[in-house]
User: Which sequence fits this backbone?
């Protein structure tokens, strides 16, 4: 509502004809200290308060005074239920306006002047009180606002700190994850290396085993050992016309019943043919076969021969590939007896 | 009409209430004597029923007895305080009656105007000061057009808002507002002339 509307509504307010919302707006406006509306209101309220004087006077029942005086005893008054006091009328203005303010008296110090004086003091007191109250409220509100602002700032700082910590934790976590992945990669690599090493070690073991096996089974080594044996039997072989430069020696170890044929300068075996050693008993018995490659000058053949002692003669012939049960090819080496 | 001055409701001395505050029974009796006729007349005007008006008056005086210490002389005259309190309680009671209130209001509207509805036989104890004031107010009200007087009385004695009055009278809201404003403005001017002579309330 504008000031003009409010000022226009003052007489309606004084006689109690405003709606609740309008009445509240009017009271708020009056509390704001509008002098012109206050002045008008005092005059209109003075009109309102004298309206009952326009009624023809009716005399109350004579017994009423006695009843009131009797009911006024402390016990009766105490017994008066507060509910009997109606709630503040919804029609009335604010509590501060419950007393009416007559207009100023111009000249004589009659009732109006007396009332005006008190009314002025009341208005000033109310104004002071309202001003002080408003100031106090504003101060309190400002303080509360500052406190709330401080709390909000503190909360924001805490939140920022927590976010910072959270960010750092996330960063640390990411670093730990990277480190873990690196470690996992290292472990995988180490596993591969370990497997490779194990493979190499296994190969090395195999090679070593093979080397060891070869070393133990090397005929030359055995031959060396055999040559140091005192009861060794030795038979020499002489090259035939097929190979006059060829020679050979046949050694026999009775303990192991093995024969060693060490042949030198035999020609290369052509076209997959093979040399075959024969022990000449009643009939020739094949002892074993061996092959001479290109550039090879000596060869050692080791075979088991249990009945060495019964053999009358030994010979080496060149036989077709795979050998033959009986000698078919020319002799290249032959013993003397 | 040569009633003693102390019986005039319009001239109740605030010192009388100060004595009542101290528990002075005689002072309370005097307060009743000076104000009861006016307050009873107003209660009767609002409620339209003598028994209920008497009942209301008893409640009001007992409330005054209990709360007289709350009276602040700086905030108004004793009779202004009593009139305000009585009107407030009567309107509350009227509204609490609900539909009955409407019936009573209708009776009032159909009946004589405010200046005529009360007891036709003013008490011999009515103070001279009150009689003079009453004649001034009656004259001021009589000078108003009937519609303005009716609107003011519906607001003041029935506690109706301008919207309720417009609905009750089946008149535009603006018309009712204007009637009240014009009527109150004329009363202010009439009574201001009286106040400028300064011998009333």
Assistant:
């Amino acid at each position: 509502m504008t000031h003009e509307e409010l000022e226009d509504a003052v007489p309606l307010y004084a006689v109690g004809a405003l709606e609740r919302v309008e009445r509240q707006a009017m009271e708020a406006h009056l509390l704001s200290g509008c002098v012109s509306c206050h002045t008008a209101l005092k005059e209109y309220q003075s009109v309102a308060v004298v309206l009952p004087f326009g009624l023809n006077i009716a005399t109350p029942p004579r017994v009423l005074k006695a009843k009131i005086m009797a009911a006024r005893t402390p016990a009766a008054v105490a017994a008066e239920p507060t509910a009997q006091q109606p709630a503040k009328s919804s029609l009335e203005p604010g509590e501060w306006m419950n007393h009416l303010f007559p207009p100023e008296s111009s000249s004589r110090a009659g009732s109006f002047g007396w009332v005006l004086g008190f009314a002025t003091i009341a208005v000033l007191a109310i104004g002071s009180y309202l001003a002080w109250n408003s100031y106090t409220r504003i101060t309190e509100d400002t303080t509360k606002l500052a406190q709330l602002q401080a709390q909000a700032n503190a909360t924001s700082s805490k939140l920022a700190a927590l976010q910072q910590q959270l960010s750092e934790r996330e960063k640390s976590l990411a670093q730990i994850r990277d480190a873990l992945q690196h470690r996992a990669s290292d472990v995988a690599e180490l596993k591969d290396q370990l497997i490779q090493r194990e493979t190499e070690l296994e190969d090395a073991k195999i090679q070593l085993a093979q080397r060891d096996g070869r070393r133990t089974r090397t005929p030359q080594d055995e031959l060396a050992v055999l040559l140091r044996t005192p009861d060794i039997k030795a038979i020499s072989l002489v090259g035939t016309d097929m190979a006059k430069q060829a020679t050979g020696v046949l050694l026999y170890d009775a303990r192991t019943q093995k024969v060693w044929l060490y042949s030198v300068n035999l020609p290369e075996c052509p076209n997959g043919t093979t040399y075959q050693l024969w022990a000449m008993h009643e009939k020739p018995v094949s002892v074993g076969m061996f092959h001479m490659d290109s550039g090879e000058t000596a060869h050692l053949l080791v075979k088991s021969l249990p009945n060495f002692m019964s053999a009358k003669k030994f010979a080496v012939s060149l036989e077709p590939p795979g050998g033959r049960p009986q000698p078919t090819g020319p002799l290249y080496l032959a013993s003397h007896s | 009409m040569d009633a003693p001055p102390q019986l005039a409701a319009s001239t109740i001395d605030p010192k009388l209430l100060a004595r009542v505050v101290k528990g002075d029974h005689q002072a309370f009796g005097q307060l009743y004597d000076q104000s009861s006729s006016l307050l009873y007349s107003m209660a009767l005007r609002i409620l339209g029923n003598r028994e209920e008006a008497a009942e209301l008056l008893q409640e009001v005086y007992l409330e005054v007895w209990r709360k007289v210490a709350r009276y602040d002389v700086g905030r108004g005259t004793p009779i202004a305080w009593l009139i305000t309190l009585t009107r407030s309680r009567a309107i509350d009671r009227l509204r609490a009656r609900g539909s009955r209130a409407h019936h009573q209001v209708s009776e009032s509207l159909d009946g004589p105007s405010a200046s005529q509805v009360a007891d036709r036989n003013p008490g011999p104890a009515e103070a001279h000061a009150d009689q003079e004031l009453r004649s001034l107010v009656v004259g001021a009200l009589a000078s108003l057009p009937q519609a303005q007087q009716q609107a003011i009385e519906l607001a003041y004695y029935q506690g109706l808002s301008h919207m309720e009055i417009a609905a009750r009278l089946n008149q535009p809201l603006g018309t009712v507002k204007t009637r009240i404003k014009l009527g109150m403005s004329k009363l202010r001017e009439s009574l201001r002339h009286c106040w400028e002579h300064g011998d009333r309330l």
In short: Chain B touches chain A through 93 residues (CB under 8 Å). Chain B is about 70% helix and 0% strand. The longest helix of chain B spans residues 173-196.
